[in-house]
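Page 47, continued from p. 46.
Same chain as before, 273 aa.
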Amino acid sequence: MSRIAERFKQLAKEGRTALIPYVVAGDPSDAITVPLMHRMVASGADIIEIGVPFSDPMSEGPVIQQGHERALDNGMSLSRVLELVREFRKSDDATPLLLMGYANPVMYMGYAMFADAASAAGLDALLTVDIPPEEVDDINVELQRVGMDNIFLIAPTTPEERMVRIAALASGFIYYVSLKGVTGAGHLDLDDVAQQLAAIRKHSTLPLAVGFGIKDADSAAAIASLADGVVVGSALVSAMASTVAGGGTSEQAIDAVAALLCEIRNGIDNAAS
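Result:
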């Protein structure tokens, strides 16, 4: 059983919802990423989603796009991200790690080479935003060979026949995009989220995590009452960027993320009590 499956199984036994924070590797600096990940765990993270910076992050809103730009300016690459994962694993072999990115860097490395390198570094799963389920067979073979999960997105606009295909291919969990558009935009429609999650559950027994539009303890708590996991990204990237732009240190940027994560963790847990 993968780390992700094991973590969701344990959380289900405890009646808790997974908190899945997102960080852009290398933003606002290379040196901050691993300490930030450890602090996220200490602040209540159950799974960490690591963004690989890309020059055209089409599914991201302006906040995370700017994070990608800063990370690329810092020289971040897929190979360097894997080195950071390896460094994190030196002192944390338990927290599941999900790599979120775009197809180009993975294809450039080669699916087999990526799978070997990612598994050796300690990654548990991959989410590629722009590889559709119809084209995923080649990379799925390599991920399955090394025991890594392939995480898929389902959106409000996903037709049922594609939903069925995704449910058959996915492992670990399914990531439901709660909003039409890009990360960090819009307002949550909880009734619609509930309906969409119910539709997905007709076709999959995997845990369902919800992201896009979750910004604080209240929105996280609302989603936690519906889903198995809550993904938070733009709010955390924004908290760091604002701190650094205001003259804060890297340590203060990490503190800002930790404070927000603790609030969100408490909101999620209080929703379940």
